[in-house]
Amino acid sequence: MLFSTIVAGKSAPSKIADITVPAGFKKLMEVKGDLDEDGIAELVVVFDTPKKVELGTERQLWIYKQNGSAWKFWHKSIGPVLSSEHGGMMGDPFLSVAIEHGCIVVYHSGGDADKWQYAHRYRYQNNNWYLIGAHITWGRQCLQLCVYDYNLSTGKVKASINTQKCDDNNEKELSSKDDDFTLIRNRSRPMLMDGINVGENEVKLPGNRESFYF
């Protein structure tokens, strides 16, 4: 697994009632941590819903704040968690959700011959939730492996592209070439977490390099 393990907030409550799961929903995962820098942990829950969409069932991300001995609903987001069949032949694309350095991080993986992994990082700022970073791994064995780290706050993209050539059976690597580079994109309009289309946002690269999507 390329991704880090879940890191929960240090101020998670010890005695607080469980949330009520909406009718027909299924809780996939939850994690606690401080998201608004007030020293008090919030709760992030990923639900699978009964709503049918183009690729399986819709997922929703709900955020709760502490209210005494209970959780109070704060925010619902549709978009940051891919639907249940979005992973192609790899199946369910959702891997995990984490709270890291005050941000919500959602991890996905999937693909067919070409495999991909995503980590999208969202932060609460200016009274809303925004995408501030995306880490993308994409490639196919004995062809090409691409890793992109995109900081949307600064516009900086760090890329590593490894092109491979193997024998006719794709069992033995014959040659390998690395293309590592960094570029700064013009900062565009901040992207909201709500309604984001994960994996469908294009970044064009200079020269003859192919675009990548986050």
Layout: helices, strands, pairs:
Blueprint (H helix, E strand, L loop, with lengths): L25 E8 L8 E12 L2 E12 L2 E8 L16 E7 L2 E9 L3 E11 L2 E13 L3 E8 L4 E11 L6 E12 L6 E2 L9 E2 L8 E2 L1
Antiparallel strand pairs: 1-2, 2-3, 3-4, 5-6, 6-7, 7-8, 8-9, 8-12, 9-10, 10-11, 13-14
Can you tell me about this structure?
The protein has 214 residues and is mostly beta strands. The protein is built from no helices and 14 strands. The strands form three sheets. Strands 5, 6, 7, 8, 9, 10, 11 and 12 form an eight-stranded antiparallel beta sheet that branches. Strands 1-2-3-4 form a four-stranded antiparallel beta sheet, with no helix packed on it. Strand 5 and strand 6 form a beta hairpin. 29% of the residues are buried. Mean pLDDT is 91; it is low at 1-13.
Highlighted features:
single chain, 14 strands, 4-stranded antiparallel sheet, 214 residues, 0% helix, 55% strand
Q: Number of DSSP strands?
A: 14
Write the H/E string, N to C. EEEEEEEEEEEEEE
Which structural class matches the secondary elements?
mainly beta
Average the pLDDT over all residues and give the rounded result: 91
As a percent range, the share of strand residues is over 45%
Condensed summary:
The chain is mainly β.
